[in-house]
Amino acid sequence: MPEKTSETPHRYDAALAGEIEARWQDYWERHGTYETPNPGDGDLAGDPAQVAKPHAFVMDMFPYPSGAGLHVGHPLGYIATDAYARFLRMTGHNVLHPLGFDAFGLPAEQYAVQTGTHPRVSTEANMRAYRAQLRRLGMGYDQRRSFATIDPGYYRWTQWIFLQIFNSWYDTEARRARPIAELVEEFASGARPTPDGRPWAELTRAEQAEVLSGHRLAYASDAPVNWCPGLGTVLANEEVTADGRSERGNFPVFRAKLRQWNMRITAYADRLLEDLETVDWPEAIRLAQRNWIGRSEGARARFLVGEEGDGGHVDIFTTRQDTLFGATYMVLAPEHHLIDAIVPAAWPEGTREAWTGGHATPAEAVAAYRKQAAAKSDVERQAEAKEKTGVFTGAYATNPVNGERIPVFIADYVLLGYGTGAIMAVPAHDVRDFAFARAFELPMRCVVEPPAGDGRGTDPATWDEAFVSSDAVITNSASDALSIDGLRVPEAKARVNAWLEAEGKGEGTVTYRLRDWLFSRQRYWGEPFPIVYDEDGIAHALPESMLPLELPEVENYSPRTFDPDDADTQPETPLSRNEEWVSVTLDLGDGRGPRRFRRETNTMPNWAGSCWYHLRYLDPHNDEKLVDPEVERYWMGPREGATTGGVDLYVGGQEHAVLHLLYSRFWQKVLFDLGHVSSAEPYHKLFNQGMVQAFVYRDERGFPVPAAEVEEVDGRFVHQGQTVTREIGKIGKSLKNVVSPDEVCQEYGADTLRLYEMAMGPLDVSRPWDTRAVVGQFRLLQRLWRNVLDETTGEIVVADAEPDEATLRAMHKAIDGVTKDLGALRFNTAVAKITELNNHAVRLGPGRVPRVVAETLVLLVSPLAPHIAEELWHRLGHDESVTHADFPVADPAYAVDETVTCVVQVRGKIKARLEVPAGIADAELEERALAEPAVTAALGGAAIRKVIVRAPKLVNVVPA
Fold it and tell me: Is a pLDDT exceeding 90 seen at residue 455?
């Protein structure tokens, strides 16, 4: 790569790139180049002409500011959205492109625990570093709209949204959230009966609170949770790995019953499913959400427990109600509330040894198994383990369709949170039930007949596996009350549903895999709940005038942690240690005057702040409303092609397929139902960028060695004289392959880094980082520089002359291609087309590049390499920023190839190639192909059966 010399003092090198980039970054900041106006008369309202343009809201997923700063993989999505936003501005759009920080979270708290540094101090330092790195990369964010979730002015509104959810209930008939006050009115007027039928006024305050808690969209309850003693906190299912350990820290996770806050996201299950059809998302992400919601249509059936039903009853949910006659035992989740009531004092006569677990009494067996099951997470319990475990409760239940008494077991493969926490087991036709029945010597009955050609017969005792079919014929399924023999599965389901409803023994119903969202964390560094408890333990919402409820100071930032393997522990939160903050006298404005309360000492999960940040970008300084309705409708409201509204483009990693996206959609729908927003979906178009990977080098022990210290010698990779292996992996400190964008900017400049990341491959595909390849994009910029400026004098060297036809065609083809590519996020092919035009300009020779071509090149490259584009645009004589210049428009007459090559085949083999006009008609192309001597010779006088013409590129002649 040529170095700058005394003869070429104006050569584009890293030093000059750095000087140009810093100068233009200062200019953009000074002039507010990327400030985007809102409609209306708020503090961000601006030029009405700008607001009248087509508008677009372009967003990146919230970055979390870690102490390590950015590596070269992080900016991939940011550069892409920045280039897209710049392109939209140049094509006449009012573009909103902001960036804030998702700043609550466990890493800062862990650092605080280790060092005593307040999480805010380290987090704000990290944010300053991130901002500096992003500024150096030339990101065109509207800095007036930047914020962090830890800002009290931000989490005031997070708390406000929580209160909207807390003070709402879901009306299943209206299919929307409504204020809880309207539900209270229905109870008070008698329009809605209370659960026990007493008048609402006769219920105590505590009883009324309990009734309302059963309806509220945010509620506290005692429920099985994922308790992680090693972290001292409970975790959502999504935060537990498949092997039952914490996603962060890799500690064991246990099932425990604790009082925690939950969000009733299950109320929105159907709407969350339905509206997936209205958004423009990758199908893989929509499928992940469908699977997580897990809608299942089936039936509830009631099984009486005990001799004459004296043990109560258990409702089961099944999607295979057609197999009820094949149920030979029942299984309850170990946490099921009925177990203690049905367990007898002694084992019934004839109890098999395999059923008891070796325990003397059913109570001992149940207690021991419950303790064993508590050591597993839901995820681990749902995994397909080879060995099935469980124990007999000593109780029997009665099958409603045939009156048969069947034994009741508990087993960890049944979850309390799914369905009813109980299943009827049909081992002949369910894989897990089959394995359990074999392990516990339980009977099997074939009720879904295998086809004759299957060869297995109808005796499950001889089978190697269960027979599962949703369209076979039902057999062995008849009693005095009901017969479904001879029906196929769908018809049998319908008949069973009708019978269950007619007999009052069940009904057809729907259930979901989705569980309510566990919303409590035993942490310090999170949003405090705006909730206090009175002397009766009733939860009360703080009035809006008391928001934000800010985090108090504490001496110890760590929740109490325990032996990771000790499941018999309870959470102790950092906030609970600040008694002065916890115990307060408040007047809640309810007419009861000042009273003593205790504050909620859990904090919200880090997902809370990222559920709604798109709305704060719209109106970040509004202290009166969550968001101005006119502003929200302008940027996110329903429109053609986006019936449920939402952000125009949202870019981030696919690792958020369920957690963040599902939670954010839920909050948006509640706000929509309550009339606070016009958009029912938060993000209309979602794009998942790939991952930037890097080479990982490992020594003979398999340990990573510093990638920067590895050399390639004779085709081998060598580190300190030893041969090492190379593989592709993530970028990270543990793999010793981190490359900082600061290093690349120092050596080549930010524009080169931006171009390289966009040129590496399709945006949605992972790609390997190769520092040696960066120089290719640096050379592109150097050639562009020389096409406009003289390296010796620094003077403009473009020609004030019209381009020849070949150059016009090259230029307009590039304009057409780059316009289409940038609009479709195909940045790698856009860079290729810019390179092709730039090389064409180089071939014209120094000083012979027409001004229109030079300016076109600068405009085309400006979304991708904005600093050099600003510099060249300015030197070409333009006073305004290139950011707001018009993107060039292709002339269709020049944008198409003048001629194309047409392939002519005979009997599928190529016989000729013709240069023909790009717009040639089918008839003319056929005539020219048949007149070609090589084609005539290949036919050898044979008659032609047909000619297939695909103008302008193919003619296929088929002889008779």
Answer: no
